[in-house]
Write a structure and sequence with these properties.
Blueprint lengths: L1 H16 L1 H30 L10 E7 L5 E2 L2 H9 L5 E7 L3 E5 L6 E8 L3 H5 L3 E4 L14 E4 L1 H8 L9 E4 L2 E9 L11 E4 L13 E6 L6 H18 L9 E6 H6 L3 H32 L1 H9 L4 H37 L18 H27 L3 H10 L5 H36 L10 E6 L4 H4 L3 H14 L4 E7 L9 E5 L5 H7 L1 E8 L3 H5 L3 E4 L10 E5 H7 L9 E4 L10 E9 L13 E5 L5 H10 L2 E7 L9 H11 L5 E6 H8 L1 H35 L1 H9 L4 H30 L15 H27 L3 H5 L3
Parallel strand pairs: 5-10, 7-9, 16-21, 18-20
Antiparallel strand pairs: 1-2, 1-11, 1-12, 3-11, 4-5, 6-9, 7-10, 8-9, 13-22, 13-23, 14-22, 15-16, 15-19, 17-20, 18-21, 19-20
Helix pairs in contact: 1-10, 2-8, 2-10, 2-11, 8-11, 8-13, 8-22, 9-12, 10-11, 13-22, 13-24, 13-25, 15-20, 22-24, 22-25, 24-25
């Protein structure tokens, strides 16, 4: 311990003697460690931190999973799991998405998010009511009472924390619901919701829409493998009872809830963590080069230590102690900078990132983050400190004394080591820049796609139609039609339409059959496509072209449908489907089965996602959709309104007038999410843009650090070789040859790094495949551009100090030593 304390004191004295070196090294490490800590903090919160529930590690989602690994259930499945529970504790079910409904009362209605849940939901997730209670078994049965549990936030915001609200009825979606409880403000639901209503799953339902999620807690001592064994047996029994509901690529199983919530973002977050780790490696290489440069000035000190009997191990330990002090100082500063970086990340992070709202509640410097940062600091100390320490500990006493006394050169080994570090920096920069370039090309490829409609001059908003159809399902179509007409009378508005969903916001699909196909072919072509309810002028408003047939009429006859080109290609590849019939909702039976429906037109494809092919889609006017279909969707999702303004009229300029028109038509029609279609499309790419932004920042940082490394090594070489350069010039060497000699040494190391980096990038960029669109991970154009750019930057970084070397006055240089 005494030796360690002496090493620490000696290390601190050495660092105090070189304040400039210490400041640069600490700041470089702080930026690298701080950025890495910030990304790890996000990874820790999203992927590693336990869910905010009791025994969260034992909570699993169960049910059907498709070929893409997505877990979701329908009403018959959920009823089956709940009835034949093989042993899960607090087995419950809830909607995958909240229901956006109008909450009446007060100055004006507002849209709130409600979630349908079964009675065990609150106990499973530990949602303790601070007032009242949660649902009982009779309330969760079909036809049960209309009751509601309210979130603490909605209670405070809308009702001012009035305790008397419990037991009273409020109007939710135009229907009265009795408030029976207020949950604790500590409860963090997934998905986030303002209120909860009973699921009331009907075991006799034929609804095959996969919009529910089932979850339960594993009994203590039960493994995930055992749970999957339970679900395998339960799934086989379900298939025997419902053989038509599971495809050959689907099965039932169990998965940890945390994994289900974060599975989609795990690859992107791990890629970003790896990328920022590479930036840290470059920072370590730069600090190692600083230590090597500083080593020349310490040769005499090390020689004296060795002459006085200090062993090689003692010298290495002393030098590593100094490196650890530097790294700990950089790590401490990085921990201070980390929370600022985390706040910046949260500000730019798209809302779709799961659990990101917990960043404000999970301490930025919790134990795992602190341990990570300290460990990272120690590892970086070894990375950048070990090589210089070993170099200095190997000094030959006699020859080094002469070199230290004359300072005639840099030393062959030191120069080679610095060149290796520069090559490593360039290789890492190549990997990061290739990744950023691939994402940039993906972004440009998506931007160049034609969306299939005209997004210019379009205002979009959401309205809840859930109130009207409770009293009369047929009134919804008339409400949508009149709403569009009223908006069209606003000055500056050209057209308006109301649809169950707008482009990039698809929410529902529906199974169908094609009459007259042989049984095998009929099974092959039986499928489900996106299903959208629209106003008659939907295609005119969005300017979606009609490729054949006709569009909808204001008084559209019953049993008609328009399909898109993707559906035509998939199901009628060699013929025109106009005039043919399909059976929408086939095999579901009343009330969703529509019988024979005529295809009256084929519309152009509309991209629902800019990184995927357009899905098969069918459109029906509101008045042609069975009431059960409208009720199912409009109770779960708000309708979309698209308003096209006249040329020269900014869409947002009519937003207030549109809201007033909606409330004038029906006081239960508050609007939300008013934004232009251009913004909607930009939001649909938010996650990819965020990944591109961060990777580009990391790549730019790597490029800057690598350029600084080349500049520093070449500049230091010029400084140490001033005497040699003077002799060369005095003996008649051309300045151009000196320029080539000095620049060539720095450029050679950089080019070696570029070559190694290209090979490494070819191996590593394949992990970006899931984030790319329209470009391959090994795209030769991308790799060629990166190689050229980095070569140019390396040439510039080496040229500037080399040019300075040619300006040396030979007489001054000869007196340099």
């Amino acid at each position: 311990m005494g030796t360690l304390i002496r090493d620490l004191r000696c290390g601190l004295r050495q660092l105090r003697r070189s304040p400039g070196f210490t400041a640069v090294a600490v700041l470089t490490l702080a930026l690298g460690i701080g950025a890495t800590t910030a990304i790890f903090t996000v990874v820790n919160t999203v992927l590693l931190h336990p869910l905010p529930y009791q025994d969260a590690d034992r909570i699993v989602n169960i049910g059907r999973t498709d070929a893409n690994g997505r877990y979701s259930d329908n009403v018959p499945m959920v009823s089956f799991w709940l009835h034949d529970n093989p042993g899960f504790e607090d087995l419950s079910a809830y909607s995958e998405n909240t229901i956006t409904v109008s909450l009446s009362g007060g100055d004006r209605p507002e849209l709130v998010e409600a979630l349908k849940v079964s009675k065990n939901y609150f106990h499973l997730l530990g949602a303790t009511p601070i007032l009242g209670r949660t649902f009982t078994a009779p309330e969760d049965q079909p036809g049960g009472a209309r009751v509601l549990v309210m979130s603490f936030g909605l209670w405070q915001r809308r009702f001012g924390g009035d305790a008397s609200i419990v037991g009273k009825a409020i109007a939710l979606g135009g229907a009265p619901y009795t408030v029976i409880g207020i949950v604790s403000p500590r409860f963090r639901p997934y998905p986030p919701a303002d209120s909860w209503i009973p699921l009331q799953a009907d075991p006799n339902s034929t609804d095959q829409a996969h919009v529910l999620t089932a979850a339960g807690r594993l009994p203590r001592g039960t493994t995930l493998a055992q749970a999957n064994s339970w679900m395998k047996v339960l799934g086989e029994r379900y298939i025997q009872a419902h053989p038509e509901q599971l495809g050959s690529d689907e099965h039932v199983g169990a998965i940890p809830m945390r994994q289900r919530l974060t599975g989609n973002v795990r690859p992107a977050l791990m890629i970003l963590l790896g990328a920022v780790g590479l930036v840290l490696l470059i920072a370590c290489a730069n600090v190692a080069n600083l230590l090597l440069a500083r080593a020349l000035s310490r040769q005499k000190e090390i020689i004296v230590r060795s002459a006085l009997g200090a062993g090689r191990g003692r010298i290495v330990r002393q030098l590593l102690t100094e490196s650890v002090l530097l790294a700990l100082a950089g790590g401490s500063l990085g921990l201070v900078l980390g929370p600022w970086a985390v706040r910046a990340l949260v500000a730019f992070t798209p809302g779709g990132l799961p659990r990101i709202q917990e960043m404000a509640r999970v301490p930025a410097l919790d134990a795992r983050v602190v341990v990570f940062s300290v460990t990272l600091s120690v590892l970086t100390a070894v990375l950048f400190g070990l090589l210089p320490a070993l170099q200095l500990s190997r000094l030959d006493l006699v020859s080094s004394f002469k070199e230290a006394g004359g300072s005639t050169g840099t030393g062959l080994k030191q120069g080679q080591t610095r060149n290796v570090l520069v090559a490593a920096e360039m290789a890492i920069a190549v990997v990061l820049l290739c990744g950023a370039m691939l994402l940039m090309r993906s972004f440009l490829a998506m931007q160049s796609l034609a969306p299939g409609f005209d997004p210019r001059n379009l205002l979009t908003l959401k309205v809840a139609l859930a109130g009207a159809q409770d009293a009369n399902p047929g009134a919804v179509g008339q409400l949508a039609y009149q709403t569009a007409q009223r908006i069209e009378r606003i000055p500056g508005v050209e057209r308006a339409t109301v649809a169950s969903s707008l482009p990039t916001q698809a929410i529902a699909d529906m199974i169908f059959d094609i009459p007259g196909r042989p049984p095998l072919e009929r099974f092959k072509f039986k499928g489900d496509v996106l299903w959208c309810f629209v106003s008659p002028n939907y295609f005119d408003t969005l300017r979606i072209p009609l490729l054949s047939g006709r569009g909808f009429r204001d008084q559209e006859p019953p049993h008609t449908v328009i399909i898109n080109e993707a559906m035509r290609r998939k199901f009628w590849p060699q013929q025109d489907p106009v005039g043919q019939s399909i059976l929408i909702g086939a095999s579901l039976g009343p009330p969703l089965e529509q019988g024979s429906t005529e295809i009256v037109g084929v519309a152009g494809d509309v991209l629902e996602s800019l990184d995927a092919d357009p899905p098969a889609t069918m459109y029906q006017v509101w008045s042609n959709v069975p009431g059960a279909g409208i009720k199912m969707l409009s109770q779960m999702y708000p309708a979309g309104v698209a308003v096209r303004t006249k040329p020269g009229v900014a869409p947002m300029s009519v937003s207030q007038t549109v809201q007033q028109a909606l409330l004038a038509r029906d006081t239960q029609l508050p609007a939300t999410k008013l934004e232009t279609m251009d913004q909607v499309m930009l939001d649909s790419m938010a996650q990819k843009n965020f990944d591109l932004l961060l990777l580009s920042i990391f790549a730019a940082s790597a490029l800057l650090l690598a350029a600084v490394g080349i500049f520093g090594v070449t500049g230091f070489s010029v400084q140490q070789r001033t005497h040699e350069i003077g002799i060369r010039l005095a003996l008649g060497a051309q300045r151009s040859s000196v320029l080539a000699l000095v620049a060539g040494q720095g450029l050679a190391a950089a080019m070696a790094g570029v070559g190694v980096g290209i090979v490494a990038a070819l191996a590593l960029t394949r992990f970006l495949s899931s984030l790319l669109f329209g470009v391959k991970p090994n795209d030769p154009l991308t790799f060629g551009i990166v190689a050229l750019v980095l070569t140019g930057i390396a040439l510039l970084a080496a040229y500037i100090p080399a040019r300075r070397a040619t300006e040396v006055n030979p007489m001054v240089a000869l007196r340099h030593e």
